[in-house]
Amino acid sequence: MTPGPTVRRDRRVVLWRHGQTAWNLERRFQGSTDIELTPAGLEQARRSARLLAALRPDAILASDLRRTADTAAELASITGLDVTHDEALRETYAGAWQGLTHEEIVERYGNEYAAWKRGEPVRRGGGELETEVADRAAPVVERNAEKLPPGGTLVVVSHGGTIRTTIGRLLGLVPQTWEALGGLSNCCWSVLGEGMRGWRLLEHNAGTLPQPVLGDDD
Fold this sequence. Notes:
Blueprint: E1 12-17, H1 22-25, H2 39-53, E2 59-62, H3 66-79, E3 83-85, H4 102-108, H5 110-117, H6 130-146, E4 153-158, H7 160-171, E5 189-195, E6 198-206
Parallel strand pairs: 1-4, 2-3, 2-4
Antiparallel strand pairs: 1-5, 5-6
GO molecular function, one term: phosphatase activity
GO cellular component, one term: cytoplasm
InterPro entries: His_Pase_superF_clade-1 (IPR013078), His_PPase_superfam (IPR029033), PG/BPGM_mutase_AS (IPR001345), PGM_Phosphatase (IPR050275)
């Protein structure tokens, strides 16, 4: 029996990184540590929320850490949508790396850091593999996207590393190539659109004039 035509619903997923934190400025690896936004980060969230509201999102999904929850709240206040929080969208747990600056990580864990940057599977600081982050985060995004109406938009508020791995998984890229997806600046976003053969990357690190990437995945 010949299969029927693929149904295309033209859904969109917007993966939005949280606003600036003090540890971003200090280039400290945050991981799953619960760090709050700076006043500048809160203003970034407000500015970006006004832009994202113009997309008329149907749902908002967010990590339960304060920096993402407070970012998501700004969009919720404009759109009137509720925010669904899920700990599966947290940043990568990085064990002993968490709280260290990038310079301290290179000094203390140089070989481990170099292997990670080469694309090798590394439990940074004894924590999670990037593939394990994708294993927990990507299915949550997919389940919530399935609930969208045709042409609907889901905004996912998460963290730089988690967004990178989720995009890589949803696009079907092999993990060794995920590094090719550049990091997201604070409160910038990437957009995935539904095509005939799955998800496609429509925009990456969008939302502002170029800003430095200050995060755990750079």
